[in-house]
Amino acid sequence: MPKRKYPSPQDIAKAARQALAAQADPVRARGVERYFKAYETVKSYGLTSPDVRALAAELYSRVKADWTVDDAVALCDILFADPEIEAKAVGGLILSRFKKAYAPALFDKVKGWLAADQLDNWASVDSFCTDAMGAFLLRYPAYVEKIKAWARHPNRWVKRASLVSFIKLARKPEFLPAIYDISASILPVDDDLIHKANGWLLREAGKADAARLEKFLLKHGPAVPRTTLRYAIERFPEAQRKAILLKTKTK
Predict the structure, then answer these.
(1) Does the predicted model carry a pTM greater than 0.85?
(2) Which CATH number applies to 102-251?
(3) Hey, what CATH topology would domain 1-100 get?
């Protein structure tokens, strides 16, 4: 077998870790870890988001001429297992550069990462799924029906992904039926991170059709968690917000 002449996923993962460690800011890292402490334990190198994006872009430039999407998936297999939030971000950002080559097999791969807690915090789930899974669903709309089942999965990250994967698609009318189906199905879940994600998605859906959002909220009334409701109606005029809060209040 001829020797590989371009960097392997293992090579890029090693380079990513070395660069992240070299730029680490322990003081900022402690602040990041405290910020997430209310929900989960997160490890951080303490890099800023622009620095992480710049590193991902630089690493991608080394492989873009030679890698396939399978190489990028293999990189994510490696970096998603790291505890640091920035390592996970680098993997996801590089994979997102290959979105035009996504294959159907990515759907089950992503679910596996989530269910195994490889993306084990809301920021990693949100940044990866809004971009990668949003692009996947746009490329393979038949999987919109399949992702509805994620809302019933026992893992909170799979549940959250079922919502945030639609964030960038919420203004497209063809996705609204699925969005409202998923939102309704997840209303009974008792998890603040799910409540917030659901409210975020509903707020985005409301930008496409505010009347439809209001009708949905009034229909489900007290079944809508108050956190979800408050997020969902943030862009409504104050008088309308107050009226909705009153009409949906538990009697």
Answers:
(1) yes
(2) 1.25.10.90
(3) Leucine-rich Repeat Variant (1.25.10)
